[in-house]
Amino acid sequence: MTLFLSSFSAIVVLAAASASWATPAVELSELGPLPTYHVAACPTPVGNGQAHCHARITTDRAGQVIQSAATATGLPNGFGPADLRAAYGVTATGSPRTIVAIVDAYGYVNAESDLAVYRSVFGLPPCTTANGCFSKYNETGRKGPYPKPSGGWPKETALDLDMVSAMCPGCSIMLVEANSSSYADLAAAVGMAASLGARVISNSYGGSELGAAAYAAAYDQPGIAVVASSGDAGYGVQFPASARTVTAVGGTVLKRSATTRGWTETAWKGAGSGCSAVFAKPVWQTDTGCAKRTVADVSAVASPATGVAVYGPVTGGSAWLVVGGTSVAAPVIGGIYGGNGGAVTYGSTPYGVPNGLNDLTAGTNGTCATAYFCTAGVGYDGPTGLGTPRGSAAF
Predict the structure, then answer these.
(1) Could you report the per-residue pLDDT of 71-80, keeping only the tens digit for each?
(2) Distance of CA 102 to CAs 71, 198, 374, Å?
(3) What is the sign of the dihedral through the CA atoms of 347, 351, 356 and 361?
(4) Hey, what's the torsion of the CAs at 379, 238, 41, 350, to 10 degrees?
(5) What does DSSP assign to residue 306?
(6) What is the number of helices (H) and of strands (E) in the chain?
(7) Could you give the CA distance from residue 170 to residue 101 in angstroms, rounded to a whole number?
(8) Closest by CA position to 228, among listed 253, 212, 211, 245
């Protein structure tokens, strides 16, 4: 193995890239008492019209996924629902009448049974097909046949289901599995989720803006909160987070502290951000450095070094994992939208409730000519947007 240093992270090259997918590489997160290594759950597409998921799984230095054991409290490593709800001041639990949809690519055979373990261990009410809380569809709106699992996408789906459960334990959850990670299939799944009654649609994936305009209409769902993760490779813009009709969610490093809030946050260096080259600026965005749409709008925990507990698939079965990436942040925000349960006007609501957000003023995700595109500061900035939830009033 060869170790390279970059402005984003230390990278251990494990294998050569294939013709169409870049092999995930081991990266070193923010330095703390101990180093945290992590790897992308999904391969990065080489070319346009394909997305990759934004989940990052913690590993050892060699890239072997770390399966988490129970701690002294009897709970797995990583932030759980109580931690996340305390950090963001969320008390609402949601209603079964509110459907939060998860859109991901490919299949996840054990989605319902793995979700049941997460909810049971953390004391959340059951969410099953039998009690009407959980439903699963393919991209055509049928309950089977479902696409086959592929790559790390089932880990991504496990993360999304668990984070929505954490933030809106009383909501109903709908999983819509796209046939592939192509923009065409993912857009079809988003449209299907809307047609099936979703109040929130969470999307934790992204890719190049080139050619993305052809699929933007699927993410234009009046009255529905469509959220999208901003990325996991640092400064730079990805679709669908750059679509003007979504709530683009950036990422933070979340730590406990002795402050009044009890938590501190800074911008995560992996969060995507910047100025879209394609999509027009929504009227509620008033920053002046970008004539088009600026990413992100809001943010939440994303650093693998301060990751969340997830119960999901591993070789030979399922296990507890610690996961980061803006794939955590997007369903966290989606779950908070679900807890509120009301109609939304695209991503405009947070802009009208500045007191409902924690303004983050430290941290960067890269180097850019316009400072706030990549560096957190007072007021709006790219990596953290308007900030992180302070209760649910802004959603």
Answers:
(1) 778 899 999 9
(2) 29, 9, 28
(3) positive
(4) 30
(5) G
(6) 5, 23
(7) 14
(8) 245
Higher-scoring residue by pLDDT: 30, 390: 390
Token pair 């996924």: residue: 65
> How many residues are recorded in the chain?
395
Q: What residue spans of 68-110 are helical by DSSP H?
A: 81-87
| Per-residue pLDDT tens digits for 51-68 | 999 999 999 888 889 997
Distance CA 302, CA 267 (A): 9
Backbone φ and ψ for 11, nearest 5 degrees, come out as: -125, 130
What does the alpha-carbon distance between residue 248 and residue 32 come to, in Å, rounded to a whole number? 28
Structure tokens at 278: 């394609």
pLDDT surpasses 80 at 264 = yes
| Cα distances (angstroms) measured from residue 54 to each of 75, 83, 152, 234, 247 | 25, 22, 10, 11, 16
Q: What is the pLDDT of residues 276-335, one digit of tens each?
A: 999 999 999 999 999 999 999 999 999 999 999 999 999 999 999 999 999 999 999 999
> What's the DSSP call for residue 181?
S
